Amino acid sequence: MESDAGLAQEVESILAAARERGGGGERVAVDARSLTDAFAAAEADGRVPIIAEVKPTSPTADGERTDDPVELAEQMVAGGAAALSVLTEPDHFGGSAKTLERVREAVDVPVLRKDFVLYEEQLDVVEADVLLLIVRFLDEDGTDDLEDLLSAARERGFQVLVEAHTAEEVERAVDAGADVVGVNNRDLAKLEVDLETFPRAATAAPDSVTLIAESGIGTPEDVAQMRAAGADALLVGSAIMDHGGDSDVAENTRRLTDAETQT
């Protein structure tokens, strides 16, 4: 069900919780592992660059995974993941800053902090290699400016993945200075996925931008579709995590990272 603001009620709930969360206090300083170098290394190794997502659950998941997130992360890397995404949103995704810390200590690939960051003080929660900023939720009353947050994140050493959903949002991201842009195939107004979203929105990005396709990618055919539309990398969560199941996370990852060798 949609709210008056045009967002699904689940998303409104997530944002309301995000507005109440403060920062970590002491200013974070990050010595980041390069995301684009990790993508290039995967390509050189014949693998599709995949950011595999560690998320115990989500509002769109059927069930949850209760495995140790560090073990899951290690399996994803064993399956060929070029980078990892770790949820730190606690109320709706079961994430935490401590989980990200543990995962980042255990692996040698870049780790993205996946959360709903609305204010500069919320940057200072945990060290990560990459930080997510979502165009739709910034530059509005009560939130910080995208360009200012992007600059503040880089001053701390973060690389930044700026997420968009439409061509217009991709343009806003690029105008703000983003050089890594994710296009979310999921419409946050309805929480519905349309894999034609990435091809439509990606055309607004210049060649200099690293493009990441997000959400709804579950099969080698989906991988091929996103790559043909210009995706440099893909962010995959539920298809790898198998919420409510117990399938092999390493094999789920490998099925996608090896997708282009199977055709």
From TrEMBL:
<keyword id="KW-0456">Lyase</keyword>
<dbReference type="GO" id="GO:0000162">
    <property type="term" value="P:L-tryptophan biosynthetic process"/>
</dbReference>
<dbReference type="InterPro" id="IPR013798">
    <property type="entry name" value="Indole-3-glycerol_P_synth_dom"/>
</dbReference>
<dbReference type="InterPro" id="IPR013785">
    <property type="entry name" value="Aldolase_TIM"/>
</dbReference>
<dbReference type="InterPro" id="IPR011060">
    <property type="entry name" value="RibuloseP-bd_barrel"/>
</dbReference>
<protein>
    <recommendedName>
        <fullName>Indole-3-glycerol phosphate synthase</fullName>
        <ecNumber>4.1.1.48</ecNumber>
    </recommendedName>
</protein>
<dbReference type="GO" id="GO:0004640">
    <property type="term" value="F:phosphoribosylanthranilate isomerase activity"/>
</dbReference>
<dbReference type="GO" id="GO:0004425">
    <property type="term" value="F:indole-3-glycerol-phosphate synthase activity"/>
</dbReference>
<dbReference type="InterPro" id="IPR001468">
    <property type="entry name" value="Indole-3-GlycerolPSynthase_CS"/>
</dbReference>
<keyword id="KW-0822">Tryptophan biosynthesis</keyword>
<comment type="similarity">
    <text>Belongs to the TrpC family.</text>
</comment>
<feature type="region of interest" description="Disordered">
    <location>
        <begin position="244"/>
        <end position="263"/>
    </location>
</feature>
<keyword id="KW-0210">Decarboxylase</keyword>
<dbReference type="Pfam" id="PF00218">
    <property type="entry name" value="IGPS"/>
</dbReference>
<feature type="domain" description="Indole-3-glycerol phosphate synthase">
    <location>
        <begin position="27"/>
        <end position="254"/>
    </location>
</feature>
<dbReference type="InterPro" id="IPR045186">
    <property type="entry name" value="Indole-3-glycerol_P_synth"/>
</dbReference>
<comment type="pathway">
    <text>Amino-acid biosynthesis; L-tryptophan biosynthesis; L-tryptophan from chorismate: step 4/5.</text>
</comment>
<keyword id="KW-0057">Aromatic amino acid biosynthesis</keyword>
<keyword id="KW-0028">Amino-acid biosynthesis</keyword>
<dbReference type="InterPro" id="IPR054875">
    <property type="entry name" value="Indglycph_syn_Halo_TrpC"/>
</dbReference>
